[in-house]
UniProtKB/TrEMBL annotation:
GO molecular function: transferase activity
Protein name: Sulfotransferase family protein
Pfam families: Sulfotransfer_3
Keywords, alphabetical: Transferase
Amino acid sequence: MASSSQPNTAGFKVTGWVSTLGGFVARNPGLWKRLGNFETKIANDAIEDIEVDRPIYVAGLARSGSTKLLEILASHPDVASHRYRDYPLVFTPYLWNRWLDKVPQRTEQAAERTHADGIKVTSESPEAFEEVLWMAYFPEIHDSTRSSVLTRDTSNPSFERFYREHIRKLLAVRKASRYIAKGNYNVSRLGYLRRIFDDARFVIPVRDPVWHIASLMKQHRLFLAGERDHPEALTHMQRVGHFEFGLDRRVINLDDDEAVADIEACWERGDDVLGWARYWALIHNHIMDRLEGDEDLRKAALVVRFEDMCQAPRENLEGVLEHCGLPIDTAFLDDAASGIHFPSYYEPGFTPQEMQIIQTETAGAARRLGYPFTQPA
């Protein structure tokens, strides 16, 4: 696949206070757990009547359309999510947000996010930050030499209590009744999440492997350049639990050490197309295995194909809202659907040989998702 021109990496710069305070939080997870528990006592009156009702999880491989789904669902008036403003003090959302609401607010202009994918954000935009909590309670969760799979048999009472209380505090802060989280790594935790919340709803975005792999490779090149130009960006990504791209790219170990070693070997020798194709197949076969092997989980999950969403956004978005149990307002639906479209800022540039590799490696998983293997127009 031909490389593009040198990308603009200015968006990778991390401000000094975020880097300093984020580092203090990351180095002292035990302290911040205690502070989070203390905050819960302070917020008791505000959260005593709040229950976690049908939390929504957008969980899929990065670059599958998950951010767009998060943005739309988080904009629903009933829904609360983490926002960019919640970092670095993710462990104490109640006090941190109350303080932020009291300080003078500067005027913000939405700017394209680091990914350079046309999505513009401010400090109020939804973002995936709950991974900070997962890493504090499961410190080896991103160790590729160990399985990251959490099942219905997994038990971590301290985390489960903290997590539930954390969501209740976030709902109180946002004055909402439903919680949503986007988490790429939650593909390895579907069973565990369903056990913690037996009414949870899962929205699983998937994407045609040709376009998906092209997007993954484009992002990886961008993050490599960004983290080389701005070393603090690599540390920031590690602190917030984003290992999908860049200098510390890691494979999610889905209880298959051999597959992890094989994919890592492909990447290390520069065979990125083969590595990403095998990774794409690994992730999606795992998802389908979990759904097909667990009827309750299957009923709680909705697989959303990126192409279907782009071709018929209103109809597919209505199906997502219905699955999540969210009230459907015509004006909200029309406005949200108007912003869904196929990407126009890049095209896959694979050689015929690379296309054959992708077809060979992903065809089985693609068929399970309803993709007859054909290159999209």
